[in-house]
């Protein structure tokens, strides 16, 4: 073998060996530093300073910070975090760098508003963020919708929700449901139908698959809530009439009260348990449900990758 | 006279095109544009924005780097290789040399921008599947980027006409950074009084204003660019480039090349 060829061979082998070595040692270092997460540090917290440092390329920096906010939220959400302390500053920086990045107000506010551990549990900051978004983008009807959604779902402030929906309904291209939502806030706040309308608006107004899955999962949970409430009313009426609980839902079918055993959104029939409550057979398929859970079981954490949801076309 | 400038410009263009650094930078810029597609996928709903913001920023920054690093060597390389003396032994005036070099590099940058812009539009087409009407404003942003290149090329030539390549690069890059803060500098000048006011105002107008030429963020959102802004930005960039070139000619005419 020629000396030059031999050198090439040795150098190539060494290169591969060293590359493997760096990957291996870095993996070990990462394992040692599990508690020291770099993402918990915001080196420059001032949006104004960052805007100056961007040298005019603030749009790109805003995209970087928005991606960072999404990744931060995703990691925290995945690990059931007890706090999301960097989320609000990251979103504030993002929207200061690019005040027209509507997506950051829209989804960022939902990340902030949802209660722990699903979100940061900071609805006031979420409202502040969306209000900033509305000031910078007064014609974006989705922002008014988001504002109303937060007031309704997270703060139960129906008057402010109605006001936000009403303002949004006047914007160009607004979803027709906004007018109905604004009107129904006064009389039907807290009712299932109002909540259903909110989630349908979310489902129809987003292109993002995760948000669509989330809305669909909520709509399925609302359907279960409605079904279980109705079936439990029937069970109570049956007990009142006969003095005992029905042995199963087949009793209703046999008595001609129901045409068949009602099924949950996944197609599986509901089940009557001995204490007279109605439950779903596979609660793990239904995140966000508040009714229909077997005794002592809590609603599962949403993991859309495991759920088989079909999005409407 | 025009032929001589044209010859110098075409030689400069050919020389720059042969430079390997140039291709590395273009390849890297195109790689970044491609990476924009991946970055868009780890975020929410900003694929198009990332492609436009990252793509145009890459075109702008890499173009600036090319302009500075090739621009600063335009004069010094000719002196180092002693080709300048051969050139001046012919009926070529010093100012023609400077203007020819400027047009040569400007032409190189326009061609580079054209290829990098194709990369940006291809990435955009890949992400969005079709181009929309507001995407036409990207052409205005690219035009403004070319105007920035003309200014920085003239600035690099100005420094190159009297300084070493290293110092020229430092000066030109510093002026690019300061130029990005030009509007802040003007705001600072407005707040001061007396002699400081005049000095600060003078400095604010003397440094190049790159911020007005950066519309990447707004075109990424499909916002229109007014005709007046296009007109005044064009006029400003041409005036500024001519100003820096005049400075370069004045210095180079008096420079002792022995």
Describe this structure in words.
With 313 residues, chain A is mostly helical. Chain A folds into two domains: 173 residues, Tetratricopeptide repeat domain (Serine Threonine Protein Phosphatase 5, Tetratricopeptide repeat), CATH 1.25.40; 90 residues, no CATH class. Chain A contains twelve helices and two strands, in the order H-H-H-H-H-H-H-H-H-H-H-H-E-E. In chain A, strand 1 and strand 2 form a beta hairpin. By secondary structure, chain B is mainly alpha-helical. At the A-B interface, helix 3 of A face helix 3 and helix 11 of B.
Structural class, judged by helices and strands of chain B? mainly alpha
CATH topology description of the largest domain in chain A: Serine Threonine Protein Phosphatase 5, Tetratricopeptide repeat
Query: Percentage of helical residues of chain B?
Result: over 70%
Uncertain runs of chain B are none
Mean pLDDT of chain B, rounded to whole units?
85
Category from helices, strands and their pairing of chain A: mainly alpha
Count of DSSP strands of chain B: 0
CATH architecture of the largest domain in chain A: Alpha Horseshoe
Overall domain count of chain A:
2
Classify the helix fraction of chain A into a percent range.
Answer: 55-70%
The total count of helices of chain A amounts to 12
Overall pLDDT confidence of chain A = 82
> How many distinct folded domains of chain B?
1
Could you describe the largest sheet of chain A, including whether it forms a barrel? 2 strands, antiparallel
